């Protein structure tokens, strides 16, 4: 067993995740992070350290033309060679509407639906310590408050399916991006690099390429320190809301036409709620009015006791009875 | 009443501070921030908005030779012209031992002693929104955790005197550094600028001159956002410990000789505890051993129920019975 695999399985145990008799989905983009996650789980399975059904899932956003299809082919090649099951999904939005956040909503809806369809226990994403540090800084710069600074949690509920589906990030607590690249190279696998990474107009990329290198002049271990800080905040700030999804930043919806906006809202509700049962046009339209409203704090009730609230320019999905947990829960 | 003065008195009311029959000490370095605080309080008193006894307090660290004495003369000139009372103190440490942290400990001990001597209700310092943002970033870079990120609170207890003395920061919630400069210029007062500000080897100054300007490219309002974040964290994280002082970073004590180290520890205890009664050589020596010890979490008990603990390379002053407060207190 390689060190990388040992670290992964140690974290898997620490997260109290199952070792057998379950299905897990590994979300794969084609980058070194998600490819290394898939390879390492497949290796652990081949070494009989785990006895889980592993399904790779890839969502093709069709955002970068030929390259998007090459990503998909690349992944098809890997899973075919290793006999790993694959689920694929394709974007319904026009490329110009498919900016970062909207793309993420579509992708999470796909992952959630796939998990429901195959009765998966968990969906795994390959967010690393570096991603956590970047998320922390992104939220800090946006001024998103204490909950925002607590950044990504290693496990959260995905949607509201029964039995519940977990979104798990087994790299978040220990793996650096560079380690995932080294691991891929051990298998001579020439992972894909997202060309978005080279466009400095994206804040996250500017954080990665400009801000973090400057912060390293102050503290060479800044990436680990920021990730530690997020973890400490998570321990001190129990999730105030049973968050089952990401908030929806409404300032990013301007590029959508009527149909696309409705489609995106359905995907967002589905990703947060687990399904669209009992959701009618009137609910979607009420949310559209909420988006256009200037007031903060207004609430739309959905069938099943969920609510959608607008807070500081974002739609937030929650339960109707928000129980504030005590500090020790 | 000028806008600056109106903002100051509004904050003073918000902090529920007294308007009459008390003595307050204003700590004055000679910079625009502390001079503007002194001038504005004196103006408010002259306009009969406040009826407080105001005492300026200046501590001469003798760190910058002739300039340090010029700072003192400059302050003497202002208080003489305005008939403001002045208390001055002088450093006992050798200049080479008097690095930033040690200087601060000596200064706070002086302020604490002066407040006790003249039965002052509060000691005011002129920390601005900019100082708060810098403190936030400094603690973030150091990896000092959630409490560290909550940065400076607008009011805290200074020492353990009875009746209690408050350390109050009336600028922290609203005043920008540039506003304090504008206010001084209204009185044609050519405030002193600390030459330390021009030495980029100090982390805080590098934060001010390099990191914050870069962060402004990401968010032009970053200084306010960081200060907001600190305030939100304070609201979410009630002080776990009844902190009455600053922790002491032991890595900064190497430049001190035996006598100076004992002197500094006495000053630190005095600043945190309010007095040195019942403190014997054995207590000082126990803390010296604690500093040299490699273990974290060890505790030295002091007469009166206080404890000194070493945590992550810092001495922390606390009460023996640490009561964790609930989330709503």
List key phrases describing it.
329 residues, disordered C terminus, 11 helices, homodimer, 4-stranded antiparallel β-sheet
Major β-sheet annotation of chain A: 6 strands, mixed
So how many helices of chain A? 11
Secondary structure tally: strands of chain A:
10
Strand content of chain A: 15-25%
Oligomer: homodimer
> Could you say which overall geometry of chain A the principal axes of the C-alpha atoms support?
globular
Considering residues with a beta carbon less than 8 A from a beta carbon on another chain, report the largest interface and each chain's count: A-B, 29 and 29 residues
Helix amount of chain A: 40-55%
Helical/strand content category of chain A: alpha/beta
Tell me the strand order in the biggest sheet of chain A.
3-2-1-4-6-5
Distance between the termini of chain A: 36 Å
Low-confidence stretches of chain A: 321-329
Order of helices and strands of chain A: HEHEHEHEHHEEHHHEHHEEE
